[in-house]
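quick one before i forget lol
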Amino acid sequence: MIKTSVTAPSFEVISKHGFAEVLLNKDTNQKALFASVNFAPGDIICTFSAATTQSFATYLTVQTGIDRHITLSPAFIQYINHSCTPTVFFNTSSMELVCLQAMQPGDEFTFFYPSTEWEMAQPFVCNCGGAACLQLINGASHLSVETLSKYKLTDFIRQQVKQKLSL
């Protein structure tokens, strides 16, 4: 169930997956993943795996190493979009999607792209609207340690930050 208001865009359900639904925003033609059940911070939402592994980033991959990028399985979690105030975290060490904020049916799953990406394949201007929005999203390598310290980061990104600091 999507939260609606007078100014809310119209959505079309593309697919249902037990705990979540992929919805199409008819106004923007963008797909997103929304909760269909409640989650509490720390809940394991689902496990995931690498459907494919490659040496280069694309806008659909998640980085797990220097030259290691995976496409996600189950495939529908690829519709988790970016936010500077994320609701979930991709733990690429345990291969678990973890809840960061209390979620109710109709809440969008979002993650902080630099939490997994050192360099973005396609940097973009963020429109999340959060009070602490970073505006330009182009990977963790472009952010200060102070900014990164506000987010949950994958082991890989934490290692990259540590290495950068030792240079």
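fyi Helices lie at 145-148, 155-166.
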